[in-house]
Amino acid sequence: MSLEADVVTVLQGQCPRVFPSEAPVNTLRPFVTWEHIGGDPLRYIDNTAAAQRLALLQINSYASTKAEALTLAQDIEDALCAATGFSARPSAGVRGDHSSDVEPALYWALQEFEVLGTR
Prior knowledge:
By secondary structure, the protein is α+β, with helices and mostly antiparallel strands. The chain contains two helices and six strands; from the N terminus they run H-E-E-E-H-E-E-E. The longest helix has 17 residues.
């Protein structure tokens, strides 16, 4: 499997609704999105690629309450860090916010992770 497929499998263990980048309009809450926001390329001195990649991923947890979004984010952190198919560690703490221009209000918590996994 790829790094992304492995991460999505772990995320789906915490929430069945997981989407790359953004969720469809009116997705049932809670839900999770993820995206690449960088990482360090792993290349040898001869410029050949290593067997693994080090990706920086942002994981976004969305819910109807702030507490639910933060709990989901914490559960995701615990699951990613305990995963055996790849190595993950938070590179930043959880940040959160909400949008009151939708009914009901949408709360989210986001966190960045460095993930080392299969190329």
